[in-house]
Design brief:
35% helix, six-stranded antiparallel sheet, 3 helices, alpha+beta
Amino acid sequence: MTPEELGAYAESLPGVKRKGTEARPAWYVDDRLVVRLQDPDTAVVRVPLHDREALLDAHPDTFGVPPRMEAHHKVEAYLAHADADAVQYAIRRAWEFQRR
């Protein structure tokens, strides 16, 4: 999955707006983070903890949680070898989570 594909998918969800910088774009709904591009190969997706664990179990090559994120509702998606459907699912869950 490319950063462009990630952004296009995020922006296809109702109410999602792009913010951030050119180098580190982020997509928000109601001013709450959905997904942010950390670097060209890594995106940070804000998901509920129970979804995060399920994503890690089902797609260990696509997602990871570095120690700095363990206490947060976030998961990293490794875009270079990601399952695009899994990343889109995570972004959709983040969007749903943030719309509450």
